[in-house]
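Lab channel / #folding
Pinned by the channel admin:
"Please post every new chain as: sequence first, then the structure tokens as a reply. Keep commentary short and put observations after the output so the thread stays searchable."

First post following the new format, from NK:
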Amino acid sequence: MKEYVSLKIKEKIGIIEFFHPHSNSLPGKILSKITEKIIEAGRNDTISVIILQSGGDRTFCAGASFDELLNIDNEKKGERFFSGFANVINAARKCPKFIIGRVQGKAVGGGVGMASACDYCFATKYASAKLSELALGIGPFVVGPAVEHKIGNSAFASMSINPKKWFNANWLREKGLYSEIFESSELMDKEITRFTKELTYYNPDAMLNLKSIIWENTNHWDKLLKDRALISGRLILSEFSQKTIKKFREQ
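Reply from TO:
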């Protein structure tokens, strides 16, 4: 299957789905389209609530595309690529509708950032996650504010400093990344359908005001995440990062 990003509307629920054949990794084109679909869904008056999900039944999101990382040969390109993650996070936090995350499997790096940008997140027991950036010679600089906002500084530090450790779904629920976890995707989807349908009956103004409170004190993130993208864009050019990413890709 080819990569895609789609927005489907079903009974006042907007379903944004992204897919990439390499374990739902995120090249720049995919990141840009996800941002566009979040903004589009937020502006659509026929949509009351949004679901963000990935295609396939295994990995939710493998993070940044290694192929694209290896093609970065100057700081400007690096900043532009990592700004793709910043744009998704900023679009999600500024979206006037609740975004419900559906995490069916593992999440890495940027995938953890995607889940953190959701307002309420469902996951299966298979949805372990790691912030692998430090092992690649960079760090979770761009996704960091969203992850820390969701799970707190201590848990964020644990994931950041131990980049090769898979943190299981139960740990992630305890820390707040996931709101609920399920034994299977089927059980999760049944509850997502029930939950999102219920949300469509709530006062949209009340939900908008509640979302504003949830994301309070993040108005400076437009600049913050851009600055963080510049840090990552610079570090990805290092000899350490380039050698490490090539090794990972060959595995």
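NK: The CA atoms of residues 35 and 210 lie 22 Å apart.
TO: also worth noting, The first strand starts at residue 4 and ends at 10.
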